[in-house]
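Subject: complex prediction, re-run

Hi both,

The earlier run crashed halfway through, so I resubmitted it with identical inputs.
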Amino acid sequence: MSKVLMNKVPVDNTAELNIDITVNYRHFDLAIKQKLPLTGITGIFGHSGSGKSTLLRVIAGLEASVQGEIALNEQCLINSSKSISVKPEDRQVGLVFQNSRLFPHLTVLENLNFAVKRCKHSRLTLDEVIELTELSLLLTQQTNELSGGQQQRVALARAILAEPRLLLLDEPLSALDQHSKTQLLKMMLNIQKKLNLPMLYVSHSLDELQQVCDNLLVLSQGKVVNFGNIHQAIHQLNSYDDSAIIHQQTSLSLTIKQMDNGHGLTSLAVGDGQEIYLATDIYFQQSSPLRCFILASDISICLTEPTNSSIVNHLFGTISQITHQTSNVLVTVNCGSQQFFVTISAFSQQKLALSKAQDVFLQFKASAVRTFIH
Amino acid sequence: MNPDWQALITTLEMATLTTIILLIIGTPLAWYLAKMTNRFKVIIEAIVALPLVLPPTVLGFYLLIAFSPEHLPGQLWQQATGQQLAFSFSAIVIGSVLYSLPFVVQPLQKAFEQLGDSLLEAGALLGAGPVDRFFSIVLPLTKASFITAASLGFAHTVGEFGVILMIGGNIPGETRVLSIALFDHVEAFDYAKAHLLSISLLIGSMVLLAAIYWLNLPKRNNTKNVSRSIKLQDHTNHE
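This time it finished cleanly. Structure:
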């Protein structure tokens, strides 16, 4: 089915969202100037009050009094100096809200048909989308009979059926349990790939963003702090010594070297010939790189290779940076081209007499390599 | 024809026409009041609610002056239609529209406020324009309030006396409505006819109100779902 869908939707590699706007509220200003290449899923990260939801509402056309310009694939959505503001119903931008906002007077199928009836293209059929979002058994249900996860699947399906050029997701998982979160994230990834539909995904959970995003936009107090490749952007966030902002971590996309070594462990290639192990999951696919992260607090440093240990992962590397933080020390270690981030106590740092350019071994358990979508 | 039957027909004509006009005027007015945030909202709300507290004779007195050929509204009417406005069927319809306005606008405004913007935003992003959103989202979800508004507007118009007496007088087949006919019977000490009219109006109003409450009753097989949806919403709000 994926091939059929791929042929139907033209692949546009030049897709780009050009934002240059300011919005002034009584207690809060949003000022964003950023070009976003629309490939895959772009994450928008920030804490409450950082303006990430407001930015989505501005792009969707739901906020009044926006100054500046937004262009989607060179087509103007807002241009305040020319007094242009395309109405939300004409923007072909979809939005999945935190609370699904399904129409309570309609069944699941009628909610989906609401979008189908008003869609000006017909690249997608209702059946294709129902299959992608696994809704076939729920179609006749009333929306208030659905669980939170089911409601969000209907909301996602409904948004896709309007065939938007850009899909915005505003914390769609925040009210769901872990199982539903994983299921929906997988679904989003699958839909993104099959339909080649660019998505902007707002979340305050870096774990979720790390698993699915290609790029990350970091906002703070209504301004852009950083934009770039997901792993680089997360590694730059490591410089914030504040666990309220980030759990310092190493973010990785690694190819699978050996699917299962017979002991339930799968090995991933780190790049310079070294490998790391993690517990095999039946959903692992050899064909695509695996997204995973290792918390800096889960890695330890040894001066000699720890061969007599139950801990399976040890990597050889060179210290590139040592940063003293309020309660501990952040050590950056390069293993080939891959950076690893490690936090150790100031006591250990002194005891081992660690210094820049020193060769060390990193040690961490297979269970410290975290991933929840495969 | 029996004059009381004629009064009934006049009353029903007046109340039906008034209700239709009230829905046409009251719906957009209630909508803008529900969406307004500036200070004019309070002033317009007060004007709409005025008939609730004002003695009907006060409203009737000012309308009588305005409708007379010596004043501009009456003059314009006379130029446009060639007929005098005061003491006409049109006059009592206009009077009723003003007098029953809060009974239509207030339930609708409350319903629109409760509905909020969230579903309308969702509709817009699925490609529905404003008119489409009104008929596909607002109307089905506020149906009960429309029924209430129309019924209250209708019933209140049927029961009106003071305004009509001031601006309509007592012209059979034109402005003589049931409440006026009743007053006539009492003045003429014809208590038998007065009783008959009174009991008919009482039962008629009772039946109408019971019908509204019955229509607005939650459907029995849905009550479970309603309580469940409220729980679910609570859950999401906490998060």
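The mean pLDDT of chain B is 87.

- K.
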